[in-house]
Amino acid sequence: MNRRERLIADIVLAALLLLVPAFLLHSDGRFAGSLAGFVLGAGAAVLMVLLLVYPMTKYSLGLKTLVTRCVSMPTLLAFHAYAGIVAAFFALLHTGHKFQSPLGIALVTSMLIVVVTGFVGRYYLPQTATELRRQQSDLATLRSAYEHTAAALSSPDRMAHEEAAMPAPALRNVPLLQLVDSISDFEAAIGSSETVKKIFMPWIGLHVVTAIVMYALLAVHVAAEVYYGLRWLA
Q: What is the rounded CA–CA span in Å between residue 72 and residue 181?
């Protein structure tokens, strides 16, 4: 993920999360039942159902062969990510910022967890893994430079040979203590990155489990709305 994509991801996620406490400034208990509220809610529900296309295609060989003839998996993944964001926006607007129903609160909460864990898996976890690999590569270079410098200092006659074998010419004139400090800094950074990666790793399990809960709550919510709608018409 480049800087622009990271910035967009951060802005969208922040904007989405800021919509949650917006009920402190605005709350309309009738909006969800209005025409605009119904359109937003129906749009959110449709998008949430369409989100299932990606996992179904990914784990079904027959469906994957059929779908990828028209749409590539990266395109499906991008749709899965961004459609989930739009669905969450629609759903939060659909509520009219009225969080009183236990079912509605549970549905919104599970939806936000799905979105956040999806962002972690789609953007932040790969970036953490890439950064960790870069740090490990730099640390290996510094350790190699340290070993060559220490060997050269311990045996002056081998100095020319060791300088020729240095992995990075720019490190030939770096003092030994500075190499030690740099190695220590990179080891600390790698330890922090590995800790972050371990924290983020369970995202897929939490994402899947919360998604199942969200779809179950969504089914109950839609069924209840249909039931009360039919009773009102009768």
A: 47
Q: How far is CA 117 from CA 48, 111, 194, 198, in A?
A: 15, 10, 18, 14
Whole-angstrom CA distances from 226 to 38, 148, 219, 220, 222 are 12, 74, 11, 10, 6
- Residues 27-70 have pLDDT tens digits of 666 776 778 888 888 899 999 999 999 888 988 888 888 888 88
Q: Look at residue 27 and give its three-state secondary structure.
A: coil
At position 40, the amino acid (one-letter code) is L
Amino acid at 47: L
State the pLDDT confidence band at 95, using cuts at 50, 70 and 90.
Answer: confident
How far is CA 19 from each of CA 10, 65, 91, 92, 111, rounded to the nearest angstrom?
14, 39, 11, 7, 13
DSSP per-residue letters across 61-90:
HHHHHHHTTTS-HHHHHHHHHHHHHHHHHH
What is the per-residue DSSP string for 131-179?
A: HHHHHHHHHHHHHHHHHHHHHHHH-GGGHHHHHHT-S-GGGTTS-HHHH
- Spatial CB neighbours of 41, under 8 Å, sequence gap ≥ 6: 32, 90, 91, 94
pTM, whole model, 2 decimals? 0.65
Q: What SS3 state is found at 91?
A: helix
CB of 32 closer than 8 Å to CB of 98? yes
